[in-house]
Amino acid sequence: MARGAVTIRRPDVPNDVRYGSQTVTKFINYVMVDGKKKTAEKIVYTALESASATLGAPALDVLEQVLGNIMPVVEVRGRRVGGANLQVPMEVPKNRRLQLGMRWLLAAARSKKGKAMHIKLAEELVAAYNNEGAAVRKREDTHKQAEANRAFAHFARRRS
Question: What residue ranges define each of the domains in the chain, with the CATH number in brackets?
Fold first, then answer.
């Protein structure tokens, strides 16, 4: 981030065609590899339909609940204070919460081996919906780390 300069946000992504949600479009863009958007759309839509059929809830509600269960509230960031690098817990901005949640969900799905991506993603969606799985564990580890370093929280408010 530039010192003192205000960053200009680009316009938000358009709504997706099936659910009319910007969140789904962003998730499709995260899944996309090598510019293959149609393949990413198939993976996400199939995974959402499969997860919603398993859970008996609308697909968009499933995604919102999953992201709510995964997105971190606090994280630790390195800060140099008095010659020492400290891990200072800081609140996560809303747009970064969504970014981290999607990234962790996708990483958890990709880490599984031996199945098609839409199946791995659907399984991870169901697990995260039930507050289980690798992505939820990642959020809990992040929160534990922030809690352990709570003694340095007063450095988050201090400007250097």
Answer: 22-157 (1.10.455.10)
